[in-house]
Amino acid sequence: MASPSASWLLAPIRAPRALPPLPGAMEDALTRAGTCGMKAATATRGPASAPNAGESPDRKRKSSASAPGATTNPFTLAKRASSTPSNVTKPANAPLPAGDYAVEPSSHPGSVVRYEPRAFPCAPDDYAEIWAFSDRVARTRNPLNANTFIKRKQATFGARYKFGAQVSARVEEPPEAWPRLVSACVDDALGRVRDAKRDAFAAGVAAHVNWYPDASAGMGRHADAEEDLIPDAPIFSYSFASGGDASPPRLFDLYRGRGAKKPFATVPLSHGDVLTMDGTTQRTHEHGVRASASKEGMRHSRVNITVRAFKPGSDAMR
């Protein structure tokens, strides 16, 4: 593992425990259980050979909602749900204990994650505001089928982010006009970077936002290792859901590099959770968000805000 002096984090990861592997990590991805015994719902996923190429069409639910020009839009239903978040609060018993984890300590000791459940508060009004912003965001065409769109929407505040076959356009608004939740996550991320590295991180900081209308929208496997990103700088991921603590978690899958066919570990991400990927994680592993057809998951929208540091002067920052 990288020495504390080499870390970008104000509170460096020093002695991480091993991330629990999935029980029977080579089981069928459609029926396997989660890392900590959570029951996984049925998932659909794009081809493993096309990391981050977008979600594959749901074979069972042949809706026209993802076709260009279709009148039914999954974001319409999600908008209604986001405007009336649930007041029911579930006990904050995280399936995975908070703490620092080595992704695979024996083979890749420098690849580490920090899991902080319920660490970032989000008021219902702040969620409603950022969800309403998605009305101004164009849908992204599916790189695997130009006649359809991926289910989630995406935009980047502070940069033009190109990854895989997709390009997330820069939000052309000054920071003072950004949704409150975006600005708060950027400020929080900067506060997690140690003084000696904070200026470098701030010079290229950007927030990539994904809007998931329901649990059927996932994120294809990928690594955040684009040329425009500062290598090995920490990446901070903030998760929020329309039902608050009552929303079911989404499963964040980890893969052993590009050759792995199935995930070997999972981190459950709930409302208010913060996940930090540090060290060499992006060079050694891929990750994705599992899609689900669970009835409960289909009732809740989700917003993820990922704060990254781009190289100043790179194409992303121009």
TrEMBL record:
Segments of this protein annotated with the region Disordered = 1-23, 36-108
What are the Fe2OG dioxygenase domain coordinates in residue numbering? Answer: 199-311
Q: Which SUPFAM superfamilies match?
A: Clavaminate synthase-like
User: Which InterPro entries would you find in this protein's record?
Assistant: AlkB-like, AlkB-like_sf, Oxoglu/Fe-dep_dioxygenase_dom
Polar residues: compositionally biased ranges = 64-90
Q: Which residues form a coiled coil?
A: none
One matching Pfam family, short form? 2OG-FeII_Oxy_2
Q: What highest taxon heads this organism's lineage?
A: Eukaryota
In the record, the note on similarity to other proteins reads: Belongs to the alkB family.
According to UniProt, the name of this protein is: Predicted protein
Which organism does this sequence originate in? Micromonas pusilla (strain CCMP1545)
The lineage, from the top, is: Eukaryota, Viridiplantae, Chlorophyta, Mamiellophyceae, Mamiellales
